[in-house]
Structure formats: structure tokens, C-alpha cells
């Protein structure tokens, strides 16, 4: 008789009920909270506040400078700390025939501990130098934040301006389509030439080309804004919900210069802090002419017993006078350089403020002239020309010129508003206004 062997494949191991419930609960938690997390992170671009908030929270340059500022703060305490003590062992009476370095097999073993003590206030001065340098690093980070905020606001203004320009061109294309329809109707009635409709089509084609160019400018503005924010170039942005609001808390250039002098730009204060650090370092170098002390204690071991104790006193002899003088000269020159740099930065900031203020004021006056005078006049002229064209009092060329003048005035309004806001962003950064 034969027999058949059947191999049985083991089935899946049963899952512990409690472990399966925990896994299901963890998966449900991830699925429930992950969408909410992404939804709670709004995209920048809706307004200026969203751009500023994203920049301050996520810009890698600012994050790097903040880490550097914290590292500088961490250097303050060690700068004034005592040097590490030295522990030593001295072996005497070693048998030259049978050398053995075990303390119990030599004549005398001495164990010592030495601690250097900087005197004359050197530790406090060193800590003051580190503190002033840390303050300078933090102020440089604040100056960089103001500069990046101005760049982000300017990039956002250009992003908004590109969208507004496209909107104006779209309105012009729509009006040209309406004019083309009017021309077609008049041609069908035999009271106008077919050339009027063709001219409207040519004008629409030209505006569509202009629209493509402005869309490309908008993509450039998106890339520039994302680069300033520290985001990928093709990262999505929210659509602007309205015109950017960049208030300047000054009514005149003199008042703006007063705010600049009163607030003291962080770059100015950073140079001042570096100058103070150099002056303190010069005091520290002068104190280095005075000697420091090193105290030590020791225990002498003979065989397996303590034979004696010792106390040591060491005095540093600062003989390298030329090296000390050169170090003093170095820090004094660094202080002079920091003060000269502060003066140069102050002059540069005043020049930038004057230039930005002139740009803002000129653009503001142009915008008011366009909004209050030119734009209403151009609109009235177009409406009058359209009514006259309907009844045959003017030709199509006059109507087309009136439309181009009206929409050109509207595009000029958007352009000068952009220039005004770009200048305002610069003024705000210079006087330290980021609200």
C-alpha cells in the first residue's frame, strides 16, 4: 500500500484584538487630522499681511540668521568662564635598572590640581565683549528682516500690479468686441464701412498679444515673490483680495527723516554695538598687561601612604609687550572702522529714504491727477465718441483713439500706483515700520 503526503501551508497568524484596535485608531487619527493640518496653513498672497507672516516664519535666510544670533548668545557665558583646571601626576625616584611606572613602585608620586584665575576684571570684560557682539548679530538679523520685508512687499505689489494690468486689458478687449459688434451692425445697415469692423478685430488681436505679455510678467512676479519668501519658484500663491495697503506714518520727508533718526535703523545700531565691543575689547587688551595667577594643590605619595602636601602659586609674566600693543591697536582700529561704517550706513539710509520718498510723492501726485482729472475726462470722451459714432457724427478711428486714451489712462493709473506702493515699501523698511 502506498501513502500520500500532503504539505499543509500555515495560514496567516491571528492578530491580537488589542493590537489591531490600536492600529486602526492610529490610522483613523492620521486620516482625521492630516487634512486639517494642511488646511490650516494658508497660502501667502491674499494680502500684504499674509506675505509678511510667511516671510518671518519660513524664510531660510532669516532662520539661518536667527540660529547665528542664538549661537552668539550662547558664547556670552563661556567668554567669562574660568579656564578649565589642569590635573597632573609627577613620578620621581624611578629605578633605572627595573623601571616601573606604578605609583607604588617609585620613590615619590605627586598628584596636583592647578586652576588659572584671570584677574583685574578680565572675565567680566570678555563677557561684555561677547554680549555686545551678540547684540550686533541680533540687530543685523533685524536689519535683514526689514530688508527682506521691503523686498517681499515690493514683489507682492508687482504681483498685484500684473493681475490688475491683465484685468484692464481684459476690459479693453471686451470693449473692442462691443465696438466690433456696433461696427458690424452699422455695416449691415449700410451706414459704415466694413473696414471699421476689421480695424476693431486688429485692435483686439493686438490687445490679446499685450495680454500674453502681461501674463508672462505676472509669472515673473510670482517667481520673484516666491524667491523672496524662500519658496519654490512654481509654488502656488493665493490671489490678491484687494489693493495692497502700505501705510507710511509720515506726512513729509522731514518727518520721515526724523523717524529714521529716532528709530535708529538696526543696521546703525549693529555698527554701534560693534564699535562698543571694540572699545571694550581694547580695555580687555590693556588689562592683559597685568599678570594672572594660577593656584594649585598637590599630594605626595611615598610607597602606599601620603607623605606630604604642597601648595603652588604661579604668576604669569606678560613679557610679549609688542604683541599686546598690536592686539590693542587691532581692536582700536576695529572700533574706528565700526564707527565709520555706522556713519556711512546713516548717510546711505538717508539717501535711500530721500529717493524713495521722492518716488512715492511723485507717483502719488500722478495717481491723483489721473484718478481725479484724466481718467474721468478720457471716459467721458469715449462715451461721447461712442454715442456720436452710433449716429454717424464721428468715424471709427476717432472712437478707437478715444478708447485707447481711456484705457491707457487706466493702465497709467495702475502703473503709478505700483510705483507709489514700491516706494512706500522702501520708506516703511527704512523707518522701521512693518505694521
UniProtKB/TrEMBL annotation:
A single BP term in Gene Ontology: signal transduction
Classification via SUPFAM superfamilies: Outer membrane efflux proteins (OEP)
Record-linked InterPro entries: Death_dom, MdtP/NodT-like, OMP_efflux
Assigned keywords, A-Z: Coiled coil, Signal
Domain of life the protein comes from: Bacteria
Death domain location: 123-180
Residues spanning the signal sequence: 1-39
Transmembrane annotation, as ranges: none
A UniProt-annotated Pfam family: OEP
One of the record's GO molecular function terms: efflux transmembrane transporter activity
Coiled coil: 122-149
Keyword Isomerase: no
Family the entry assigns: Belongs to the outer membrane factor (OMF) (TC 1.B.17) family.
UniProt name for this protein: Death domain-containing protein
Organism: Arenimonas metalli CF5-1
Lineage start: Bacteria, Pseudomonadati, Pseudomonadota, Gammaproteobacteria, Lysobacterales
Amino acid at each position: 500500500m502506498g501513502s500520500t503526503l500532503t504539505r499543509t501551508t500555515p495560514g496567516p497568524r491571528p492578530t491580537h484584538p488589542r493590537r489591531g484596535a490600536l492600529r486602526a485608531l492610529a490610522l483613523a487619527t492620521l486620516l482625521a487630522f492630516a487634512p486639517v493640518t494642511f488646511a490650516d496653513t494658508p497660502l501667502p498672497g491674499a494680502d500684504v499681511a499674509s506675505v509678511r507672516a510667511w516671510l518671518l516664519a519660513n524664510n531660510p535666510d532669516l532662520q539661518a540668521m536667527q540660529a547665528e544670533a542664538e549661537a552668539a548668545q550662547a558664547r556670552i557665558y563661556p567668554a567669562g568662564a574660568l579656564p578649565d583646571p589642569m590635573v597632573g601626576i609627577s613620578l620621581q625616584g624611578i629605578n633605572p635598572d627595573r623601571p616601573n611606572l606604578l605609583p607604588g613602585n617609585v620613590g615619590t608620586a605627586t598628584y596636583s590640581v592647578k586652576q588659572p584665575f584671570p584677574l583685574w576684571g578680565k572675565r567680566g570684560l570678555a563677557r561684555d565683549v561677547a554680549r555686545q557682539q551678540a547684540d550686533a548679530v541680533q540687530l543685523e538679523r533685524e536689519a535683514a528682516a526689514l530688508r527682506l520685508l521691503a523686498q517681499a512687499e515690493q514683489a507682492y505689489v508687482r504681483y498685484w500690479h500684473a493681475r490688475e494690468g491683465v484685468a484692464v486689458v481684459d476690459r479693453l478687449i471686451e470693449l473692442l468686441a462691443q465696438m466690433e459688434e456696433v461696427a458690424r451692425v452699422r455695416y449691415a445697415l449700410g451706414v459704415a464701412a466694413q473696414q471699421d469692423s476689421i480695424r476693431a478685430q486688429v485692435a483686439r488681436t493686438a490687445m490679446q498679444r499685450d495680454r500674453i505679455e502681461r501674463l508672462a510678467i505676472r509669472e515673473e512676479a510670482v517667481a520673484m515673490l516666491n524667491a523672496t519668501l524662500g519658496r519654490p519658484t512654481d509654488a502656488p500663491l493665493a490671489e490678491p483680495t484687494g489693493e495692497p495697503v502700505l501705510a507710511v506714518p509720515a506726512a513729509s520727508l522731514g518727518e520721515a527723516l526724523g523717524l529714521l533718526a529716532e528709530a535708529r535703523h538696526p543696521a546703525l545700531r549693529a555698527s554701534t554695538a560693534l564699535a562698543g565691543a571694540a572699545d571694550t575689547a581694547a580695555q580687555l587688551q590693556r588689562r592683559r598687561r597685568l599678570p594672572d595667577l594660577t593656584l594649585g594643590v598637590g599630594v605626595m605619595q611615598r610607597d602606599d601612604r601620603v607623605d606630604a602636601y604642597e601648595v603652588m602659586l604661579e604668576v604669569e609674566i606678560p613679557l610679549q609687550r609688542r604683541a599686546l600693543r598690536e592686539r590693542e591697536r587691532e581692536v582700536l582700529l576695529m572700533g574706528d572702522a565700526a564707527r565709520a561704517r555706522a556713519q556711512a550706513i546713516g548717510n546711505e539710509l538717508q539717501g535711500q529714504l530721500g529717493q524713495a520718498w521722492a518716488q512715492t510723492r511723485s507717483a502719488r501726485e500722478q495717481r491723483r491727477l489721473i484718478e481725479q482729472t484724466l481718467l474721468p475726462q478720457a471716459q467721458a470722451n469715449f462715451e461721447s465718441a461712442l454715442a456720436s459714432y452710433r449716429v454717424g457724427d464721428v468715424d471709427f478711428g476717432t472712437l478707437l483713439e478715444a478708447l485707447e486714451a481711456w484705457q491707457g489712462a487706466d493702465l497709467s493709473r495702475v502703473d503709478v500706483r505700483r510705483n507709489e506702493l514700491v516706494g512706500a515699501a522702501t520708506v516703511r523698511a527704512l523707518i522701521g515700520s512693518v505694521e
